[in-house]
Amino acid sequence: MRAGRHKDPDREPRPRRRATYTRPHGVRHLFAAYDLTKNQLYGHIKKTKNRSKFLEFCRYLRSLHPLDMRITIVCDNYSPHLTTKRCQRVATWAAANNVEIAYTPTNSSWLNRIEAQFTALRYFALGGTDHASHKDQGSMIRRYIICGTSTPLSAYTTMCAGGYSRTGSVADLVTQGPLDRFG
């Protein structure tokens, strides 16, 4: 048998995923927050990632809690999150809205609890997929945010649009493909 041939000559070749070294339609950015008390992930997908979009997402997070409750938003040192001498919008908004913006030290994003959620999102919702459009990819991310963080990974339950539900262990979750998880 020659190299590169499958032992079953009648088998259809596996479809190849598209190369991603060019992105003619741009990329999308996920603004996400993880509420530790509710074990809930929140996320917005945007075309651009700048200070205005960050403040828009912060306003959304603020709207989820009463104004007399102080909330803390932990951020990495990505420039739209920072208050600079030139732009005080983030600090001004935070002070006026009973919000503390806490920054992780440089090269220490692992201290931010949301990083584990991003790893799970990449593994369970995006790994091994090839979305035809940004809309399809956004739909998969939103389904993960809605279904994937509702229970701990040790005993998960997934409920999807058709009313289908499945319960199992982490071992079941790992052995299924990313699309199998959603029925």
Automatic annotation (TrEMBL):
It comes from the Bacteria. Residues 1-13 have a biased composition (Basic and acidic residues). Residues 18-123 form the Tc1-like transposase DDE domain. InterPro entries: RNaseH_sf, Tc1-like_DDE_dom. Residues 1-22 are annotated as: Disordered. It holds the Pfam family DDE_3. This is Tc1-like transposase DDE domain-containing protein.
